[in-house]
Amino acid sequence: MSVRDERSRPAGPPVRVQGRPVDSHPALPPEAARGSVRRVTVVGEEVLSRPCRDVTEFGTPGLSALIDDMFLTMYVAEGAGLAANQVGVDLRLFVYDCPDDDGVRHLGHLLNPVVDLPAPADRRLIDDYEGCLSVPGAGMPVPRTDRATARGLDKDGNPLVIEATGYFARCLQHETDHLAGHTYLDRLSRRDRKDALRQMEANREDVFAQRATRAAALGK
């Protein structure tokens, strides 16, 4: 998921890492410092259009390396979230570094997530701008509920419950959609989908060039 244009990532407290409050956290987390940049898949590639597999092995060096690479790839692409199939790996896993509408920075990873939404009678849908790193250079308003709870596991297999509101709730819903084989384009009307694809065609090369520049600046 792309960072909202008018919103910068908070640099200091309040911060929640894996759902828990911390005093502070570096702008570039340790995971990203260890990682390598991977290619981001683009809409139309088969790995983005089929459901991902559950993670069944935890605590492995390969899983930790994947998470590190996903964090760095997300920052190079200026994202607020990134699903594993966006780097070509069909596992139910995403990483995130996303603010909510109160300015709290939420950072972490989640494996095998299930997102619970409010009951229909209590649900409030918000139309807000949504972009996607796999639809480079495009963005459209997408209706999403303003609250969500994500349940899953960390990389060591420990259970996690992440409560989210506002833009962070949107991020959790967006990334979980990816793991089911969907992008935000699937939630658009035919007309709006065509508009988003036209935006991507016009802007994608500039986006790729910007990503390459940021990767080079980080020595990656």
Secondary-structure blueprint:
Layout: E1 15-17, E2 20-22, H1 30-34, H2 61-76, E3 81-83, E4 93-99, E5 105-116, E6 125-131, E7 139-145, E8 147-153, E9 159-165, H3 166-179, H4 190-217
State the shape. globular
Could you tell me the mean pLDDT?
94
Report Rg.
16 Å
CATH level-two architecture: Alpha-Beta Complex
Report the CATH superfamily.
Peptide deformylase
Q: What portion of residues is helical?
A: 25-40%
What is the terminal separation in angstroms?
21 Å
What kind of sheet is the major sheet?
A: 7 strands, mixed
Query: Given this structure, which CATH class is correct?
Result: Alpha Beta
Number of strands: 9
Strand content: 25-35%
CATH topology: Peptide Deformylase
- Taking pLDDT < 50 over at least 5 consecutive residues as the criterion, the unreliable ranges are 6-11
Structural class: alpha+beta
Number of domains: 1
- Please work out how many helical segments DSSP would assign: 4
Order of helices and strands: EEHHEEEEEEEHH
Describe the protein in words.
The structure is a single chain. By secondary structure, this protein is of the alpha+beta class. It has one domain: Peptide deformylase (Peptide Deformylase), CATH 3.90.45.10. Helix content is 29%, strand content 25%. The protein contains four helices and nine strands; from the N terminus they run E-E-H-H-E-E-E-E-E-E-E-H-H. The strands form two sheets. Strands 1, 2, 3, 4, 5, 8 and 9 form a seven-stranded mixed beta sheet that branches. A two-stranded antiparallel sheet has the order 6-7. Strand 4 (93-99) and strand 5 (105-116) form a beta hairpin. The chain is globular and about 45 Å long.
